[in-house]
Amino acid sequence: MKILMVASEAVPYAKTGGLADVAGVLPKFLRQLGHDVRVVIPLYGSIDRWKYRMDDVPGAMGVWMGVMGELWCGIKESRLPNSDVPVYFIDYERFFARSQLYNEPNGQGFMDNDNRFVFLSRAALQLCKKLDFAPDIVHCNDWHTAAVPIFLNTVYRDDPFFSHTASLLTIHNMEYQGRYYSGLMDVLDIGWEHFNHLELEWQGQVNLLKGGIYHSTLFNAVSHGYAAEILTPQFGHGLEGVVQDRRDALRGVLNGIDYEEWNPAHDVYITAPYDKEQMAGKAVCKHALQEEMHLVPRSDVPLFGLVARLVDQKGIRLLAEVFESLMALDLQIALLGSGESWAHDFFNAMAAKYPGKFACYLGYSNPLAHRIEAGSDFFLMPSVFEPCGLNQLYSLRYGSLPIVHAVGGLNDTVENFDEYNHTGTGFKYNDQTPGAFYDTIGWALSTWYHRPDDIAGLRWRAMSQVFSWQGSASQYVDIYREAIWRRTGQSVD
Ligand code: ADP
Ligand code: GLC
């Protein structure tokens, strides 16, 4: 199968969240299954072109942008690390030579994000022609590349080059939809007849995610739980009706994690290796984390970790509400994240008020994310909604017991502790209220203080869980096959 993966970010080149993990790792597993998979992302200013040894794909490429005319870009090529999967970087400085991916340093989204990502989407398809690579399936991700299925199903519908190309749109997050002024129709240049309430129009604006859901051959959410949730007003963010209309094309596939990178048995960033048979290293990691973050180096106090984008989705308002009550308990919290400025102010103030008990690093650090997973006893994920969530999967493997709101991927992957039957891998609560969250932390805390054997059992079961990409990659292959069959009436190997 010829597969084109198009995304706005991919590890190791550019990452703000879990989308990058998916776009940079899934292709390697698809390759192992024998498919010809290639990846397209923008060449952001922050990507180090020398480190990744990029070659020029000769010749400039013209990309049609409607009223903006034809814009000419360059293409660079590299390989995903430790693989032969080609990655193509769209090199267009006016849109992408910036150090941040989506936002100004003050957090404001770039004014031209609509044009930037419509351009990425159209450039990806133009590149197929330039390389004479006619994909069986284009796999695109979130609103940034949702214009790909829109183009494929409109202006390229009868183009012989794409006559056999199906599309899959993966929804990693329904909250971000790419809503812009209606004039974007003239940039897309697919014809105003597609600006209607079924296709691209949403409350007088263009909604790229909506158009992508309508025009993709199949679409999926990154867990079964989230696939069911986005059919409802609570999680559909206004698009639940569109999702319902296409529910026969909706699938759910849980993300895997990369156990090469996230494995305490051979993690290059942590102080001492460990695994479920040999847990001594975890205590060393905890001590080292306490020292690194200036927490009191006590082994007899439970340490709670949290690593997240500091945005409402992640439930940090709830954490803020219960924060001072938590500080009255005998526990420690280590937080890593960056995001909204109120959260930075709040957690800075709390770190000053509770030195030795609470510590935070308000920035981005992959090595520290690993050390928090390894060094903490529990991991907090009070997300309001969570399409899949990767950190709870890392936490399970690192024996850092997840405490989660029972939604989306969190609910699908964490099994609640049952102290009578000795089952479960973490602690779950149903109501997103301060009381429920606080009580669940209290439950974890009392288990830690009074029933250490239960904690050992929980850890053992948590660390035995496997959420590998092998399984998810073969589910994606099945979905690609189905999409190709829907598009062409033919099956592929
Ligand atoms: P989302 O994609 O919604 O942010 P996920 O749980 O799927 O949530 O993925 C988040 C990813 O980003 C994880 O790999 C996590 O370790 C990483 N991450 C988030 N914030 C930071 C940070 N401040 N420093 C380092 N890694 C971070
Ligand atoms: C999104 C979601 C997160 C998911 C990630 C990768 O950013 O918020 O839950 O794990 O995408 O699919």
Characterization of the model:
With 493 residues, the protein is an alpha/beta fold. It has helices at residues 18-32, 93-96, 113-131, 147-153, 184-188, 208-215, 224-229, 233-236, 240-245, 280-292, 316-327, 341-353, 366-375, 391-398, 408-413, 434-450, 452-464, 469-488; strands spanning 2-6, 36-42, 55-64, 70-79, 86-91, 137-141, 166-171, 179-180, 201-202, 205-207, 218-221, 250-252, 303-310, 332-339, 358-361, 378-381, 401-405, 427-429. β3 and β4 (70-79) form a beta hairpin. Helices cover 38% and strands 19% of the residues. The longest helix is centred in the C-terminal third of the chain and has 20 residues, at 469-488. It has 18 helices and 18 strands. α3 packs across α4 (147-153). The strands form three sheets. It has a nine-stranded mixed β-sheet with strand order 3-4-5-2-1-6-7-11-12, with helices on both faces. The model has no long low-confidence stretch (mean pLDDT 97). Residues 17-19, 22, 172-173, 222, 255, 386-390, 409 line the site of alpha-D-glucopyranose (GLC). Alpha-D-glucopyranose binds next to α1.
